[in-house]
Automatic annotation (TrEMBL):
Disordered as annotated region, ranges: 1-29, 170-235
Biased composition (Basic residues): 19-29
Official protein name in the record: Uncharacterized protein
Taxonomic lineage: Eukaryota, Fungi, Dikarya, Ascomycota, Saccharomycotina
Compositional bias (Polar residues): 203-215
Domain of life: Eukaryota
Amino acid composition bias (Acidic residues), ranges on this chain: 216-225
Length: 235
């Protein structure tokens, strides 16, 4: 049954608009696909992270961030740059694990927090136990990895005003070596040592007594051979 307000021309125009809209959507999708195929996904990821971490963003920054996030979702949905993205995230995970490992590593004497009695392992102090509120401490070693973190302090002008003279000799140093940890070498008992000396002397005496007997026997054998050689042969 045909409705009273139905029009063939209006129906044809509506169908044409739908067809044109689908064509435009396909063209738009293809254009975006070709565009994002040539883009570097790693740079896109860093741009998104940098804008997300930015505290004060303008309206344009929010719009730009929204567009970048849509591009990233499009890349993931259409599975573009899969191998590159996978290797990138694997490397990021390895770096994160390495940082966590270095953060929890115990440096011992190399740590700036080392103390032979209070902190022999060089653990990072727990900031919750401190009276002052501080930022999370880094696991630094000696010398410091980053020289920019070293702060140089100027001498107090009050020392020059009061004309304070330092005492003679070397300045005091903080002793950061663990003491009394080496095991003493075992001492040889005197009785055992004397017993060993007596045994060695007895062996040497026995050898010296046996040696002249052997030499005399050898001399007798040589004389017999010589006499036998001198005897004339009987015809």
């Amino acid at each position: 049954m045909i409705k009273g307000n139905w029009s063939l021309s209006a129906e044809l125009k509506q169908n044409e608009r739908k067809r044109q809209s689908k064509i435009q959507q396909r063209q738009k999708h293809q254009f975006k696909l070709d565009k994002l195929k040539q883009i570097d996904p790693i740079k896109l990821y860093h741009r998104i992270k940098r804008l997300e971490e930015q505290e004060s963003r303008s309206i344009k920054d929010d719009e730009y961030l929204n567009n970048l996030q849509q591009d990233w979702e499009f890349i993931e949905k259409n599975k573009l740059h899969q191998l590159k993205i996978k290797t990138f995230f694997d490397n990021q995970q390895k770096l994160q694990q390495q940082k966590q490992k270095e953060l929890n590593k115990l440096w011992g004497q190399k740590s700036i927090y080392f103390n032979p009695e209070l902190n022999p392992l060089g653990k990072i102090p727990d900031i919750n136990n401190l009276s002052e509120r501080l930022e999370p401490l880094e696991n630094l070693t000696i010398p410091l990895k980053n020289r920019k973190q070293i702060t140089k302090y100027e001498s107090d002008p009050l020392i020059q005003q009061l004309n304070i003279k330092l005492p003679s000799g070397d300045p005091p140093r903080f002793y950061k070596l663990i003491q009394n940890t080496s095991k003493p070498k075992p001492k040889v008992k005197i009785d055992e040592a004397e017993g060993d000396d007596e045994e060695l002397q007895a062996k040497q005496l026995n050898e010296s007594d046996a040696s002249p007997v052997d030499s005399s026997d050898n001399e007798d054998e040589e004389e017999e051979d010589y006499n036998n050689h001198k005897k004339p042969k009987l015809v």
